[in-house]
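Run folding on both entries below.
>entry_1
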Amino acid sequence: MPRISTVRRALPIAVAVILVAACGGPGPTPSATSDPSRPPSTTNPATPGSTTGGRPSASPVASPPAAPFDAAALRVTLEPVVGGLSSPLGVVNAGDGSGRIFVVEQAGVVRIVRDGNLVERPFLDITDRVRSGGERGLLGLAFHPDFPADPRLFVDYTDGEGRTQIASFTLDPADADRADPASEVAILTQRQPYANHNGGAVAFGPDGYLYIAFGDGGSGGDPHGNGQSLETVLGKIVRIDVSPSEGAVNAFAVPPDNPFVGRDGANDAIWLLGLRNPWRMSFDRATGDLWIGDVGQNAWEEIDVARAGVGGTNYGWNRMEGSHCFRPRSGCEDPALTLPVTEYAHEVGGCTVIGGAVYRGAAQPLLAGGYLFGDYCSGLMWAIDPATDGPVEPTLVGDTGATLSSFGEDEAGELYVTDLRSGELLRVVASPR
């Protein structure tokens, strides 16, 4: 990887620093709203042995391209699509054939971009129930795989008490450009011991289940050991079934093939563990693999992969930061821990990884089959061949100057990013190096 000088662009203090989650040291630094005396707990807990209750059928998985991806052959730039957004943190599509792009704003608003134009009226406005600022706010959005036949969309947000709320909302039956804010159904509530490391990504897998990314609960160095504890969803990727089920007590069910179902003391909803702050994740629409950008502590940023259908993987936090010992400082190696596919050091690339996506579109053939990701502070972008299990050194493909906060796809598989500082949605463009 080319050597890059340390971050050159200082961010204005006025920018909401939602993503600077790479803390300065391993010691705990509780926020003013922390209450370490109360252990984290989950309402609507997963019920051991519960069934899936009629999940949606998995989407067909396409064959990946035969030609290997060559990151060294391209460079990436960003092309503005729309501006005027307020602290955009996410970009998704509804998969409904409308061509609309939905942008998540931190304060609690979802906006529509249609035909390259920003629709003035919000699609969803829940600012009245969202606590926003720092690493809190409306953090994730996913549409049901059968949308709009199943008219629900699912969000991850921080409520007025600082808790993570996973909830669904329903499309207004009289207006396809509006979700009804009064239709909220609580799915899962998780207390957060500190104000940072909330995770926030939500996505439906090809199996029709909802995957939710939880950070380790915050402070620095994971003082409660949540990353390695099976008793809490903090520091995990959770996998649940949100299909309606007649007579269901909870708002979700646990898939019976989750890896820790029935284990004493374990939360049955856990799918993956050992994560610090999995801010953004995405499924490869061709292979079904789950790609995770896990924000590091003070030295290393990592990209992890869970191959399609494989659960129970332990990515090592807080024993390891990336592929390096964290606690203890040496002798942490364990074959039961899975190392990142790729990583980069703060000294060469910034402060906070923004997990990206595998490109499966048609407009940028040089990107075909490549996994693209970036850094929040530096605006640098890297790419790797997702066929590798790593470890592999990432190839620098762009220096965008943007304050990257998320990657996302439209229905055709074209890639976009959001710029937190400028309030822009930008399209990813590749050209020969």
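>entry_2
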Amino acid sequence: MILDQLLEATNASLKSRGIRLVVEQRKDSLCLRGTWTDLLGERKRRRLPLGIAATPAGVTQADAAAVEAWAAIGSGEDPAGTLAADEGLLGSGGPERLTVADAVARFQASFWETRSRTPSAEMTWRRMGTELNRLPDKALLTVDLLEAVVIGETEPDSRSRVEACKTFKRMGRLVGMEELDRLDRLKGNYEPAQRELLSDQQLVAFLDEVRDTKWGWTLCAAATFGQRPGEVPSLVIGEDGKTASSITVKRHKRKPAMRTCFALPSAWVERWNLRDVDIPGEFRWTRPEDYDSRSGERFVSTWLSGLRAKKIRAAINDHLGEGYNNQLLRHCWAVRSIKSGLRVSLCAKAMGHTIAIHERQYHRWLQEADLKDALSRLDV
């Protein structure tokens, strides 16, 4: 009864001061009720949990919180974020009192606690950072907020929506949020578009034409050995002219390491004189300890700029068409290896990734190869 009287008196006082918020009791704790526009631009009636016990002393705290929240609303800020940042106003809450900025900071610290700063790990964090940047820093982290951002900032059945849901859920689990399975229903049914690859005839015609250009050796080596663009400066061709050593730069939670790759077909090594290494600039790393991700990024960026040279651009237009990128050379190598009948495990090792990734990435072509092999065994 005393608590009810205190709440009534407090709300009357708030109204007389022009503060259009009401302190309410919800079970054993207090909250604020009112109408305001959140950081996503949505104005509606809502409740803001305070994490304050429903006691006489708590009502006094709630009054101060209401004053602070109303000032934030008047400034166009999210009152939830303002109160969460003010440890003097609220009682001990939990994940429901965490702002987006605080949650992201914890997530980032946790991510790097168990990983070396390898190129692969840095790329992973940048990819997740792209999704986390969709969230308003000062907002209180709630599942409602995560849902609203996913729906408002990404398209249904898109890769960006899948990545946003995965990243938000991962961060939410870390900070102890509940009901995160609500994000699962938003993922949809995204499937990557089928990649159209070059024929060997197209590729050879293109490489023959650009071999004598500044980036000719780089393009021919990438196509022959199936490397990632950032790995090309590490290529050291063996005495047999068929195999080579290379650095694998993309390794989950691990530093770069050496691997053996092979030319496919081996005749291309002689066709384009790949023993005569010619890499523009001073980009060269033949040991894992020589490699750093920033140099790798500069090399790839410089290479992409080099593709705008008049002769290379003309050759791309004549032989390859639109949509060409350097990763395409690697994917063509993978499909050639499948069509050649080589063991999947061998090809996956040569490309520097796992069998699972190889099968997932090249499932369509592997399936076609298996079907053709099976049909060839039938007596029809």
